[in-house]
Amino acid sequence: MSRRSGILEFAVLGLLREAPMHGYELRKRLNTSLGIFRAFSYGTLYPCLKTLVANGWLIEEPGSAPEDALAASLAGRRAKIVYRLTAEGKEHFEELLSHTGPDSWEDEHFAARFAFFGQTEREVRMRVLEGRRSRLEERLEKMRASLARTRERLDDYTLELQRHGMESVEREVRWLNELIESERAGRDQRRSGPGTPKAGQAPEGSADAQQDDTSGETGGLPRHGGSTRPDPSDDTAK
Hints:
Elements: H1 3-18, E1 21-22, H2 23-33, H3 42-54, E2 58-62, H4 66-74, E3 81-85, H5 87-98, H6 107-115, H7 122-150, H8 156-192, H9 207-213
Antiparallel strand pairs: 1-3, 2-3
Helix pairs in contact: 1-3, 1-5, 1-6, 7-8
């Protein structure tokens, strides 16, 4: 399996974990919610869906009422097929969520992983964020070294382009630092914070509270009014 197809399968499973969808809805969500898939087609999506069905991770269901399906058939149109995640598919997606290897730090894969951080355990989020930061710091060091070697041979516009690329990476590193510190602060607060649970929060020690501890809680995200965060899929950060 190519890296690109692996990312697409991951994203499809993650979206279908939220709710069953037909192909058009899936493509729209992939285009609008996950910017890394802005330029892909149905010719890419449907083979992926067929593979996931063949693996037992998805099932196909009729997406219309019987009379609508009949009308579509009489009009020469295919009735919409809804794709639903199976129990095996959910288990497989959760396994993928727990993976924190180097692939999850790369540009496209990181953007897909970050889109599903709300479903990811806090400790896994931390490992992915820290791995991504290390990868970008390595990239930044190489960019600086390359610029130092070639600065005298570059014209003004090429030099400005090089600086722009470095600034993009530096912005993402700062953004990652904020996220990591927020995740740490949220984790420390949960570990040390006794007292009365907030509205809608389960009491400490209860089964619901234990489940919440390992859920994809995003309460540690920094909130900056009016600030602009870099897009993890920004091509200028590659």
